Automatic annotation (TrEMBL):
Keyword Lipoprotein among UniProt keywords: no
GO biological process, one term: carbohydrate catabolic process
Lineage, top ranks: Bacteria, Bacillati, Bacillota, Clostridia, Eubacteriales
Catalysed reaction equations from the record: Hydrolysis of terminal, non-reducing alpha-D-galactose residues in alpha-D-galactosides, including galactose oligosaccharides, galactomannans and galactolipids
Active site (UniProt): D479, D549
Domain Glycosyl hydrolase family 36 C-terminal as annotated: residue spans: 651-726
GO terms, molecular function: alpha-galactosidase activity
Record-annotated Glycosyl hydrolase family 36 N-terminal domain positions: 30-286
E.C. number(s) listed in UniProt: 3.2.1.22
Descriptive protein name: Alpha-galactosidase
Length: 733
């Protein structure tokens, strides 16, 4: 049993293989958080609590003589509002009488086998006997607002999921203005916040800084999880490294506006609150109404950041991603975007496909520009009829010829958007998010459809269901190329406009849920101008996401490095593109571009016909090597051997098979040096006593030698050279 409820003492303990989590409902019904950290066995940790009268911290009713008891200083499982806790809170609300208070007290706790589900939201699954659920109900007895805190305890995976479901059990209307998913109070320790900031073409760059007595907020108000911040944060002890030290992560399973806030209080305890952003948010609960706050995945490691990432990778791979593709090597694809942009006809696409097939590519993806009047990015989105005049044939004729070559066919779509000069917009101007009387802002000349309206979701479902049912399509790239403005739904009354952005996400999840259910064999790749919506919510539907629009391998190393803290490499769309690179103008070797792209779902995105004969041979060899590496990428453990953001000369990473029989080490020179120092790397996670063959110098070493003494590489100079070294365990000694 991973959940223990000691009703006599009000203690609830959650156990995973290596961690313990304990909480306690006191005699007032306030639920204290006692502990989350390395496993401590079965014991009562109330002795860890520290009570003192710290002045100006108020006492709840009934406790006025006990000056050392204040909600302001207690570590709590979930906060109320306006009743004496001045730290960042989980909740803001207006009760039926306009009062802003909520005082949650314990009602019930039950442990049930299996994993809870959340209405309308993606959430981690149980593949059979992996999880136990704690349902902890709290309630404000005055206004009737009840919240059920849900905990999914995954013992073997060492992961605890949390979510919160609100129900108005009172008689009047309650408006939620903030409704976080979870609060985590850490009574002791000094923590540093690691988060992932960025911009279009440079997503998820780690930043690490100590938490102070300020509030630090990571947020998106863009209607998508965003290029700028990722809904994932790590708290790490000051000396925590890749291989050692304490750290814990909080990752939202959510793709819309979010907030993760951290604060150190006057008594040096640290609070983290995570959930849907409260900016421009409100949700009205009529009596009986319900609101579900998205899931957060908490994971704790005392073995450094590498172990934390490995646990998230395994969990996302096995418990979040639902697609039948999740454990399968993905088809090696050629995408025409950087080869042609929107300037193509079927002949040009078929030429690209033919060349790709000859070299061993397995799927052709036709990107943007095949539909409506779309010859550039100022028109066409919303009119999803095939532009046969541009192609010079029907879609089926094109697909037929691609399939005859022996390639799978994939297609780009951007369902959530509409251009103002389309038939769809002319027919349904009220389907776009716009404010009455106000000319809307555009982004990439497009408006955002109001997916909070069921009829819009129904229309998109019909349109894309027909597309997938009517054609032989194996893959969909689901793009989303602007952030929201003018968030106003014509279908909602004025007082409910604060629900529009959230309802959009529920509509999107509904749409993606239905299409992926109806077409389980189709491989969906998420995209939002590259990695502008790279999160666990999207991974629930799409087993891979285009990691960034920046395909320059020297930048891509940093982007994939940052992304790998939370997300498995097999979810990162990564392609070999042309040199000089279209985003940066930098020239790099074809071999280097391939080494970097092989750290994700591999493909090409350039005109292969323009390659020299030698280069074509290299592509053939790269595809063969990629096929050997794909199992390692899917099942292996990824080690960040260097810090790609701080590296000055080279970056290195390693994939290791679960049974430690093989590893692949990649090294890329990011700044070639004159009179260079040797490149020296230490590998990780090999069997110390086994003998391994190393492919670069063809020498044999013990695992201990490779991990402790390391490898010295030959000098590498030129246009960013790279090597891939295969490490294979020798069968007999
Ligand atoms: C986005 C994607 C690109 C490409 C274009 C097409 O920017 O990230 O890969 O599909 O849209 O318009």
């Amino acid at each position: 049993m991973s959940i223990r409820i000691d009703r006599e003492n009000g203690l609830i303990t959650l156990h995973t293989a290596h961690t313990s989590y304990q909480m306690w409902a006191d005699r007032l019904g306030v639920v204290h958080h006692l502990y989350y950290g390395p496993a401590v066995g079965d014991c009562d940790l109330r002795g860890l609590e520290y009570y003192s009268d710290c002045g100006f911290s108020p006492q709840p009713a009934g406790m006025d003589r006990q000056r050392d008891y204040s909600l302001d200083n207690l570590c709590q499982e979930y906060t109320g509002s306006g009743v004496g806790d001045y730290r960042i809170g989980c909740l803001r609300l207006a009760g039926p009488d306009g009062s802003r208070a909520a005082d949650f007290r314990f009602v019930s706790a039950e442990a049930v086998p299996g994993k809870y589900a959340l209405p309308g939201l993606p959430a981690a699954c149980d593949n059979g006997g992996e999880c136990e659920t704690l349902r902890l109900k709290l309630k404000d007895v005055v206004n009737g607002l009840a919240v059920t805190l849900l905990y999914g305890v995954y013992e073997a995976a060492d992961l605890i999921t949390r979510a919160a479901v609100f129900v108005n059990e009172g008689e009047g209307t309650i408006r939620l203005d903030k409704a976080a998913s979870a609060c985590l109070d850490l009574p002791f320790g000094q923590w540093e916040l690691i988060h992932f900031q960025g911009r279009h073409c440079m997503e998820r760059q780690p930043e690490r800084a100590p938490l102070g007595h300020t509030i630090q907020t990571l947020r998106s108000a863009r209607g998508a999880s965003s290029h700028q911040h990722n809904p994932f944060a790590i708290l790490a002890a000051p000396h925590t490294t890749e291989e050692a030290g304490e750290c814990l992560g909080a990752m939202l399973v959510w793709s819309g506006n979010f907030k993760i806030e951290c604060e150190v209080n006057q008594m040096q305890s640290t609070r983290l609150v995570a959930g849907v952003s409260d900016d421009d948010f409100s949700w009205t609960l009529e009596p009986g109404g319900q609101f579900a706050a998205p899931e957060v995945l908490f994971c704790y490691s005392e073995a450094g950041l590498g172990e934390l990432s490995a646990r998230y990778h395994r969990f996302l791979q096995h418990n979040i991603i639902r697609s039948v593709w999740r454990d399968k090597p993905r088809p090696i694809l050629i995408n025409n975007w950087e080869a042609t942009y929107m300037d193509f006809d079927a002949q040009r696409i078929l030429d690209i496909a033919r060349q790709a097939r000859e070299l061993g590519v397995e799927m052709l993806v036709l990107d943007d520009g095949w539909f409506g009047q779309r010859s550039d990015d100022t028109s066409g989105l919303g009119d999803w009829q095939v532009n046969e005049a541009k192609l010079g044939c029907t879609l089926d004729q094109l697909i037929g010829q691609v399939r005859e070559m022996g390639l799978l066919f994939g297609l780009w779509v951007e369902p959530e958007m509409v251009c103002a000069n389309t038939a769809l917009y002319a027919a349904h101007p009220d389907w776009a998010l716009t404010i009455p009387g106000r000319a809307p802002s555009t982004g990439r000349s497009q408006l955002v459809l109001d997916l909070g309206r069921p009829e819009v979701v129904e229309y998109l479902y019909g349109t894309f269901h027909r597309l997938l049912a009517g054609h032989d399509i194996a893959y969909i790239k689901w793009d989303m190329n602007r952030n929201m403005t003018d968030v106003y739904s014509r279908a909602l009354p004025p007082e409910r406009q604060g629900e529009a952005a959230h309802r959009y996400m529920l509509g999107l999840y509904d749409l993606l849920g239905r299409l992926t259910r109806d077409f389980p064999q189709v491989l969906f790749e998420g995209c939002a101008g590259g990695g502008g919506r790279f999160d666990a919510g999207m991974l629930y539907y799409c087993p891979q996401i285009w990691c960034s629009d920046d395909t320059d391998p020297i930048h891509r190393i940093k982007i994939q490095y940052g992304t790998s803290f939370g997300y498995p490499p097999c979810t990162m769309g990564s392609h070999v593109s042309a040199s000089p690179n279209h985003q940066t103008g930098r020239s790099t070797l074809l071999s280097t571009r391939a080494v970097v792209a092989m750290a994700g779902t591999f493909g090409y995105e350039l005109d292969l016909q323009k390659l020299t004969g030698d280069e074509k041979e290299m592509v053939r060899a790269q595809i063969a090597r990629c096929k050997q590496l794909q199992p390692l990428l899917l099942e292996g453990r990824c080690e960040r051997l260097t810090n790609a953001v701080a590296d000055s000369c080279f970056t290195a990473w390693q994939f290791t098979a679960p049974d430690r029989s093989r590893a692949a080490v990649s090294v890329v020179v990011i700044d070639p040096q004159a009179n260079p120092w040797p490149i020296h790397i230490r590998l990780r996670g090999l069997d110390p006593d086994a003998l391994y063959h190393e492919s670069l110098t063809e020498r044999v070493y013990t695992g201990a030698a490779l991990c402790r003494a390391g490898l010295t590489l030959p000098i590498m100079q030129g246009d960013y050279p790279a090597v891939q070294i295969m490490i294979e365990r020798m069968e007999s000694v």
